[in-house]
Amino acid sequence: MNEEIRNIINSFAIQGKTVNAKAITDGHINSTYKVEVENNGETEKYLLQKINTFVFKNPDELMQNIVCVTEFLREKIRKNGGDESRGTLNFIKTKDGKNYFKTENGECWRCYVFVDNAYALNSIDSPEIFSEAGRTFGVFQNLLSDYPIDTLFETIPDFHNTKKRYENLENAIKNNRANRVDKVKNEIDFIRQRKDDTRLFTDLIDNNELPIRVTHNDTKLNNILFDEKTNKGICVIDLDTVMPGLSLYDFGDCIRYGASTAKEDEHDLSLVSLDLKLFEAYARGYLETAGETLTEKEKELLAVSSKILTLELAIRFLEDYLNGDEYFKTDYPDHNLFRTRAQLKLVEDIENKLPQIEEIIENL
Known about the structure:
Layout: H1 3-9, E1 17-23, E2 32-39, E3 42-50, H2 59-79, H3 84-87, E4 91-92, E5 101-102, E6 108-113, E7 118-119, H4 127-143, H5 162-175, H6 185-192, H7 200-206, E8 213-215, E9 224-227, E10 233-236, E11 243-245, H8 247-258, H9 276-290, H10 296-322, H11 335-363
Antiparallel strand pairs: 1-2, 2-3, 3-6, 4-6, 5-6, 7-9, 8-11, 9-10
Helix pairs in contact: 4-8, 4-9, 5-10, 8-10, 9-11, 10-11
């Protein structure tokens, strides 16, 4: 444990002596350490984490969102007789009462209690585990259904504004900075044929037909902790993108990620499709826990939400490809192009299966 990390740990309101700080290398977070502290003969565990200020320019707003949402969740869990120590993340303030610690060189660090006897998954083992994921994200949505949304900051403006994403793509086509437009005419045509789809949610928001809720906005399977003994979902983690949005964003994006039969950048498009069994499993778990808080309009649009969110990501991949791969990390020159094609194939498959998807939602 180097002296810098020790000094950062000591800036937080933690009782006891720090005996170990081990770097965690998996995941996409800049720097994360599992910290062990001895306090009155007991070993307490914490996670020390550096905030990605390249993506999140305002750490004050980011951390206020996270702290206020987790405190709200903790109170709800307590009232419902649940385990507040495991049902949500528990953040530790600095010794001077702040939500994060800022070093002399401008790095921003936060600390929270380590959730023991838990694990996360990067892939789906079974419909049962995906249903449990749906149940867990549904609980998250349910508990936050009456959160005072006006107090929440939008940490990444227009993150799921598909209409704006489409406009950005058209600008990228016009500018053609990486001189790649001629290579992607089929992909551009496919997306342009679905221009009206990109404004579906924004038009409904403008007409006050959909409620703005607290949304996670990154509903991948690895953002859920599961209990080692019961394999039940414990809590939702990685709350950096928590902000105002639509429940449809979270539902559609998790289906896009979890119910696809292929990798996000699959080269063999014949392998790309939507697994209806996985869709049904997730939707069942989600509606069991979130269903009572959703409006009829939200339920009606659950089926199409996976198509819209998949189309949105394809648009983002293609825009980045045309701009010279500035945003998404790429492993080879046409990586974003293969990502685009895989997502567009998934859009096409969802469209073909939409009657079956709608029937599944209706039956549930």
